[in-house]
Structure formats: structure tokens, C-alpha cells
């Protein structure tokens, strides 16, 4: 009997390919090709199920150092919200909506961001119903835009990484 310890410790896709090669030494190439095709199709059909999804069906992963007031819920119906993180580089756009008052939400962000070592570098009011807060921490920046529309508050957070030029 053959020693199968090396086969049994291999990942399942590799194991299937090795066993296919062993079992088809005298059979045509088609047998292995069929098994490989089945594995690829299976991986494609189940691959997206492992993506992180929140209770709202969100595919954008919020960064831990972001502050979001209670009563605001992320919007991701048509991919308005999205994020990417690779090593220390981050980029994200997050759209939230809710029935909280815009000034209360902005006040909450003003109070909580310094607790996460963010520094307020700019505050503007581009329109009477809009407030914009820009924060920086190291090479990260986060711009919070609060807008009041039709009885709801919309918050858009643009989060970027700005490395210094060499």
C-alpha cells in the first residue's frame, strides 16, 4: 500500500489534481481536464460568497478608526459605498443616511475624532444645508460632508491615504 501522508496534507484542489494524475496514467487527458474544469467552475460559483457583508448587505468595509454617528446607516444599493485597503494604504467612500439632525451628527464627529488621534484641519459650510469637516492623521485624511435633504441627513466620508512626495 502506498504512503498517502503527503497527499492527505495537500490542499483539496491540489489533492484532487494529484489523485487524478495517479488514477489516469493509462487514460486519456480528458479525464483530468474534466475534473479540473469542475473544480474551477465550483470555485467560481462559490468564490464571492466569502466576501465580507454586513447586516445591511454592505460590501464596503468600514475602517476601525472612522467615527459614524448613531442613527446613520450605510448606503450600498448601487455601490455608492466602497473601500480598499492594502498594507498601510487605504481608500474609501462611504455614504450614510438617516433621520438624525445634520448639526448633531457633525457635533458628534467633532467630539469623537480627536479621541482617535485625528486633527481637524478645515471646517467649511459650502451651502446653507451643508457642513464639511476635514481631518488628518499621519498620511491619512478623512473628509466628512453632512447635507440635510428632505427630512434626512446624508453623510459622505471620503477617506484617503496621502503619502509624501519623494
Which key features would you list for this structure?
alpha+beta; TATA-Binding Protein; globular; 2 domains; 166 residues
How is the topology of this model organized?
Elements lengths: L4 H4 L3 H12 L6 H17 L25 E3 L7 E5 L2 E10 L3 H11 L6 E9 L2 E8 L2 E10 L2 E10 L5
Antiparallel strand pairs: 1-3, 2-3, 3-7, 4-5, 5-6, 6-7
Helix pairs in contact: 2-3
Structure description:
- This protein has 166 residues and is α+β, with helices and mostly antiparallel strands.
- The chain has two domains: 5-49; 55-161, TATA-Binding Protein (2-Layer Sandwich), CATH 3.30.310.
- The protein is 27% helix and 33% strand.
- The protein has helices spanning 5-8, 12-23, 30-46, 102-112; strands spanning 72-74, 82-86, 89-98, 119-127, 130-137, 140-149, 152-161.
- Strands 1, 2, 3, 4, 5, 6 and 7 form a seven-stranded antiparallel beta sheet that branches.
- Helix 2 (12-23) packs antiparallel against helix 3 (30-46).
- The termini are far apart.
